[in-house]
């Protein structure tokens, strides 16, 4: 199959992990921001995590540099627009982008200004390309519970205006859900949908708790349900959708090799899986590459791909009109 020609849906993509290296250099030169190098090829080495990362924490180190240039409304609009532009050229029809607003307040931006700037960049891309999108607000597990409340409260006014969901991300420790029950419960009361990073490292039980304690409708990664029968069963029984990111999972050592990735076994067993980039720059990938990786290892049939596409559309946090439009794109 020619996967470039097929329509795609992406539900798990981090804004700060998906910047063009040329844009980082351009902004850094304009604003006198110090970079390790202003040569694109050299900078790329700093931005892309090796396939043989030692851990998730090593992978996450790649995010500090992009955030240097994501501290103004203008830059956030530009970077968001470019991500949607790149995705549109891959024939992505719908993209949910997530980011942690508090990371972009270093130079004095209000959280509300940060969120509005990202929405504005998305809207500009929607007006110019055949792509639709929504925004997911991430709370950092490395920050305080109070910071999660702040994101929930300040993002509330954007619900239905581009923002659709709340997320917990960053370094994963066992039992993290306990600390965030109250802010995520409040988010649900306000109308946020819920997706949680869990089971990306060796804690399958985190997925169980994300579903039971936090009400996760989708789980980012979820690889380690393979080692936790209770988590596996609740994901399968409740049809919790897994946002899987094969290249990222090899880099962070969730799996050692692509061939060991459980995505196809899950799919065959009736668990709803989706294919995503996670971070286009940090993982040096695209949606086409990720789908080709899965196809290369597991020989996807046309029906496999169609089912994953439909799963992705229905699992999206888009409204019904947008979902129907996305379904109509798959001829």
Automatic annotation (TrEMBL):
- The entry marks the following residues as binding substrate, namely 14, 16
Q: Where is the active site?
A: 200
Cellular component aspect of the GO annotation: cytosol
Q: Which residue range or ranges hold the Adenosine deaminase domain?
A: 7-324
- Residues the record annotates as the site (Important for catalytic activity) are 221
Look up the record and give one Gene Ontology term from the biological process aspect.
Answer: purine ribonucleoside monophosphate biosynthetic process
What molecular function does GO assign, one term? Answer: adenosine deaminase activity
HAMAP family from the UniProt entry: A_deaminase
Provide the cofactor note recorded for this chain's UniProt entry. Answer: Binds 1 zinc ion per subunit.
Which InterPro entries does the record cross-reference, listed alphabetically? A_deaminase (IPR028893), A_deaminase_dom (IPR001365), Ado/ade_deaminase (IPR006330), Metal_Hydrolase (IPR032466)
Reactions it catalyzes: adenosine + H2O + H(+) = inosine + NH4(+); 2'-deoxyadenosine + H2O + H(+) = 2'-deoxyinosine + NH4(+)
Q: What family classification does the UniProt entry report for this protein?
A: Belongs to the metallo-dependent hydrolases superfamily. Adenosine and AMP deaminases family. Adenosine deaminase subfamily.
The residues that the entry says bind Zn(2+) are: 12, 14, 197, 278
Q: In its UniProt entry, what is this protein called? A: Adenosine deaminase
Q: Which UniProt keywords apply?
A: Hydrolase, Metal-binding, Nucleotide metabolism, Zinc
């Amino acid at each position: 199959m020619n996967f470039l020609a097929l329509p795609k849906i992406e539900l798990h993509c981090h804004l700060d992990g998906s910047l063009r290296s040329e844009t980082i250099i351009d902004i850094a030169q304009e604003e006198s921001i110090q970079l390790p190098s202003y040569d694109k090829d050299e900078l790329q080495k700093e931005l892309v995590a090796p396939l043989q990362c030692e851990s998730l924490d090593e992978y996450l180190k790649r995010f500090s540099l992009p955030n240097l240039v994501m501290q103004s409304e203008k830059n956030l609009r530009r970077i968001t627009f470019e991500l949607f532009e790149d995705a549109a050229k891959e024939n992505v029809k719908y993209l949910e982008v997530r980011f942690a607003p508090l990371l972009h307040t270093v130079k004095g931006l209000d959280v509300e200004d940060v969120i509005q700037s990202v929405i504005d960049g998305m809207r500009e891309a929607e007006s110019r390309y055949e792509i639709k999108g929504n925004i997911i607000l991430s709370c950092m597990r490395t920050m305080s519970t109070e910071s999660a409340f702040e994101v929930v409260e300040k993002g509330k006014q954007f619900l239905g205006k581009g923002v659709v969901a709340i997320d917990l991300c960053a370094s994963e420790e066992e039992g993290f859900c306990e600390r965030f029950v109250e802010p995520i419960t409040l988010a649900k009361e306000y109308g946020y949908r819920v997706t949680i990073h869990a089971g990306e490292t060796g804690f399958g039980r985190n997925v169980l708790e994300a579903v039971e304690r936090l009400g996760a409708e989708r789980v980012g990664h979820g690889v380690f349900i393979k080692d936790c029968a209770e988590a596996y069963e609740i994901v399968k029984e409740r049809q919790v959708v897994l946002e899987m990111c094969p290249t990222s999972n090899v880099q962070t050592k969730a799996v050692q090799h692509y061939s060991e990735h459980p995505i196809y076994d899950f799919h065959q067993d009736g668990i709803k899986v989706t294919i995503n980039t996670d971070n286009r720059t940090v993982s040096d990938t695209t949606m086409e590459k990720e789908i080709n990786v899965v196809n290369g290892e597991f020989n996807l049939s046309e029906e496999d791909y169609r089912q994953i596409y439909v799963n992705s559309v229905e699992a999206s946090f888009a409204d019904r009109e947008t979902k129907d439009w996305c379904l109509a794109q798959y001829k």
